[in-house]
């Protein structure tokens, strides 16, 4: 497709680990190459763009001017904000992450928070949150679509983007502004070990006979019953596997404040 036909995308990195970008790069349908050559024009993405330094900042500035009101904004990472915003200071101009994100939000056609960091604050917002990191939705008045997960699967990131490209509208959302098509069901609802749960067959301790036999991981901390996401159906890495298949319970990574709230082991 011609560049003019492709949707301009600006991807900003705030306080984060780049796991969400890594997930994006594993897109299978379409592949990341096809996504970039046929559907979007990736104007700015610090991990994979060729430009560096002043040139990179100039590219970002130019893209936001040229596609004012038309570009899609995706933000990865929590945002140290208010009087602590200087904890994230980026680039030669010494702008804070909060300033960059607010500027980019102002002229974006649609805004997506990719990952639990930008959706809800994430790991750096966990207690005691020394940098005062917060969700993207707390630093802009515009609507933010949250695509949480630590990281979210490539299919949830790309699916959300393609929905906007194909329909030109925002998807139906749940109470946390997550797209319902991806976050409408609990992990527990479609888990391959659900039969074990219903039969009362539980792993009591990692490495025991139950673990070897694929029993339910609830007693060793699985948070699947409290977590809304589609991992059990979509999986990760092009459908290769997902946490429970790999033998570890869900830790609720697509729920707000999961670092602080999901640490408790419940008894069934
Ligand atoms: Fe990394 Fe998780 Fe934050 Fe994504 S949501 S940037 S994977 S810590
Ligand atoms: Fe539910 Fe977790 Fe057990 Fe799967 S492993 S059935 S999600 S409690
Ligand atoms: Fe996260 Fe649980 Fe899926 S930990 S990756 S929501 S299985």
Automatic annotation (TrEMBL):
It comes from Sulfurimonas denitrificans (strain ATCC 33889 / DSM 1251) (Thiomicrospira denitrificans (strain ATCC 33889 / DSM 1251)). GO terms for biological process: anaerobic respiration. The keyword Transmembrane helix does not apply. It is found in: Cell envelope. [4Fe-4S] cluster 2 binds at residues 188, 191, 216, 222. Its cofactor is [4Fe-4S] cluster; [3Fe-4S] cluster. GO terms for molecular function: 3 iron, 4 sulfur cluster binding; 4 iron, 4 sulfur cluster binding; electron transfer activity; ferredoxin hydrogenase activity; hydrogen:quinone oxidoreductase activity; metal ion binding. This is Ni-Fe hydrogenase, small subunit. Residues 17-163 form the NADH:ubiquinone oxidoreductase-like 20kDa subunit domain. [3Fe-4S] cluster binds at residues 231, 250, 253. Keywords: 3Fe-4S, 4Fe-4S, Iron, Iron-sulfur, Metal-binding, Oxidoreductase, Signal. It comes from the Bacteria. Its EC number is 1.12.5.1. [4Fe-4S] cluster 1 binds at residues 17, 20, 117, 150. Belongs to the [NiFe]/[NiFeSe] hydrogenase small subunit family. Residues 183-263 form the Cytochrome-c3 hydrogenase C-terminal domain.
